[in-house]
Amino acid sequence: xxxxxxxxxxxxxxxxxxxxxxxxxxxxxxxxxxxxxxxxxxxxxxxxxxxxxxxxxxxxxxxxxxxxxxxxxxxxxxxxxxxxxxxxxxxxxxxxxxxxxxxxxxxxxxxxx
Amino acid sequence: xxxxxxxxxxxxxxxxxxxxxxxxxxxxxxxxxxxxxxxxxxxxxxxxxxxxxxxxxxxxxxxxxxxxxxxxxxxxxxxxxxxxxxxxxxxxxxxxxxxxxxxxxxxxxxxxxxxxxxxxxxxxxxxxxxxxxxxxx
Lengths: 113, 137
Fold this sequence. Notes:
heterodimer, A: 113 residues, alpha/beta, Udp-n-acetylmuramoylalanyl-d-glutamate--2,6- Diaminopimelate Ligase, Chain: A, domain 1, six-stranded mixed sheet, 35% helix, globular, B: 137 residues, alpha+beta, Heat Shock Protein 90, 5 strands, 36% helix
């Protein structure tokens, strides 16, 4: 599904990455633990409740560039600035991690393992 | 090519700046994306460890045509039992480190998985030095 469809499904808000709205997303990974993100060999979309600069920095190191922030956490300007340098997409949704994962799973997004 | 970076105790906002800079340099040198990912993940883990556990330190990076050597040397409490610290899941991280999404006891094991050579030396009450090497080919 496309990033645009993901935003609609999650009743989300696009914080960054308008130029990539029609890009396809195939797989996702959900974690608040950045140590887990750093062990990934693939580059899925990240669903996380951890909303700080280290979320962006970790994604940069792990070469993940599409992030869904759950539970309506506020994406800060310094996060946007760092993400912009790395051409990332950030989506914010008020839904919980569980609901977000459930909706995306139902819609056909795949896990990485 | 030699690069040096300073690590400041508890400075989580800047955690990863050295790794980001190394990533940019390796990209400019046309190192393969797979190798770059291994290098920066290992270096980032080491940076975060030094910021989380020590009282500051240095990151020293030497890039040759065929490999990269990285040293993260900190002044800090040191590691009393390195073998125990290398075990996945063992952690002495403070709650504020865990709040940043780290401190799960996966740093040193993940460094080992990503580099070709890892050497950790430590003296209790003095500090820890992590030396890592990754071949480009």
